[in-house]
Amino acid sequence: MKLKEVLLLELRRLFAPAAPTVLLLVGLPILYTILFGFTYSNNVVKYIPTVIYDQDQTTGSRSLTQAYMDSERYKVVAQVTTQEEMERWLREDKALVAVSIPAKFSQQIKLGMSSEILIETNSTNVMFANAVISSSQEIVQTFSAATGQKLQEALNQLPAPALRTTAPVKLGIRIISNPTTSYTNFMLPGLAANGLQIAILLVAGPLIAREYRRLSRWRQTSATTLVLGKLLPVWGCATVAFIICLAIMNVGFGVPVRTNMLSLLLLVSAFTFLVINLSFFFSAITSSEVAALQVPLLYIMPGLLYSGLSWPSLAMNEVARFFSSLMPLTYMADTLRDILLAGYSPFLLSNSLSMFAGGLVLQLTTLLVFTLRRKKFELQTTKEVSP
C-alpha cells in the first residue's frame, strides 16, 4: 500500500462520523486550556491569611500593620497579643504568615536606632514563602523610606547613624516547616501520590469491566463479594507501595518525615480506598476494558494542578476551587506535605474521613450498577434460551 493510500485511509478513519478521535484530538487540548486558565486566572498569590503580633501598639506600629492590611497580597485574619497565640495560628494553618512587631519599635526609630520586624511564613508550599518575602520587602522598604524621610533632621551625621536614619526598619524572615525552601520537599510527596493514583487506575480500571464478558461465572456470587474480593488485594498493595515510596523519599532524597506511622497509614489508606473505588466506578459504567482505562485518565489528568500542590487553592477562583473539590489528590497532597514537613495538619482527620466517605459512596454506586447490568445480562440469557 502506498503512502498516499495509507494517508487517505487514516483520514477517513479520523473523520468518520462515529469516531471520537477528532473530538478528542481537538476538544481535549481546548478543554484543558480552559481549565488550566481558570486555575492561573488570578496571576499571583493573593490574600494570604496573616496574623499580626504588635508588641508596640503605637502610631508607628499601627501604620505598619495598616500597610499589610492594605496590600492585596495579605488578608489579616487576626491580631494577637502573645507569641504563643501567634504560633498557634501558624501551627493550625489558620494563618500562613505572621508579622511580629517588636516592643519599643517606634521609640528605637525616633532615637535613630534601627528596629527589626520578624516575618514568619509556612513554606510547606514554597509559593507562599516566595510571595511573602518579595512583597514584605516592598512593604517594609516603602514604610522605612517614608519613616526615614521624617527623621532626617540632623545634619553632619556619621555614615552608620545616617544609614539607620535613612532605613530605620529592617526585615527579618523566619521560614518554618521547609526552612531551606527545598523544591524536592515541596513537590516530591505530591508527585509520588499522583504516580500512585495513576498506577491504581491502570491496575484497577479494567477489573470490573472485564467481568461483563464472563458474567455467567458469577451467577452464584454476590456483587458485594466480587467487588470486595477485587478491592482488598489492590488496596493493601497500593498502601504498602506508597509507604515504601515515602521511605525512599526520606532515605534517598532527604524528605523529612516528622509524623507518626498511624497518621501516614490513615491518610494513605483513605486515599487509596477512594482512588480504587473511583476506578471501579468508571469500570462499572463503561462498556469495555479500554474505555475503563481511558475515561478515568481523562478525568484524573488535571488533578495534579488542581490539587493545590503547586498552585495554592486560595489563589484559585471559585470555578477552579469547585473543580478542585472533585479531585482525590486535593484531599491528599497538601495534607501529606503538611504532616511530613511540619508534623501536623489540622485537616488530616477531616480529609481522611472525606476520602473514606467518597470511596464508600462510589463503592455502593459500583455495586448498584454492576448488579443492574448483571440482571440485564441474565434476562437476555433467559430470553435466548427460552423457545
UniProtKB/TrEMBL annotation:
InterPro entries: ABC-2_transporter_component (IPR051449), ABC2_TM (IPR013525)
Location(s) in or outside the cell: Cell membrane
GO MF annotations, alphabetized: ABC-type transporter activity
ABC-2 type transporter transmembrane domain mapped to chain residues: 23-364
Record-level GO cellular component terms: plasma membrane
Pfam families referenced in this protein's UniProt entry, alphabetically: ABC2_membrane_3
Annotated TM spans: 21-40, 186-209, 230-249, 261-285, 297-316, 353-372
Topological relation to the membrane, as annotated: Multi-pass membrane protein
Keywords: Cell membrane, Membrane, Transmembrane, Transmembrane helix
Keyword Lipid metabolism attributed: no
Listed name of the protein: ABC-2 type transport system permease protein
Source organism of the structure: Propionispora vibrioides
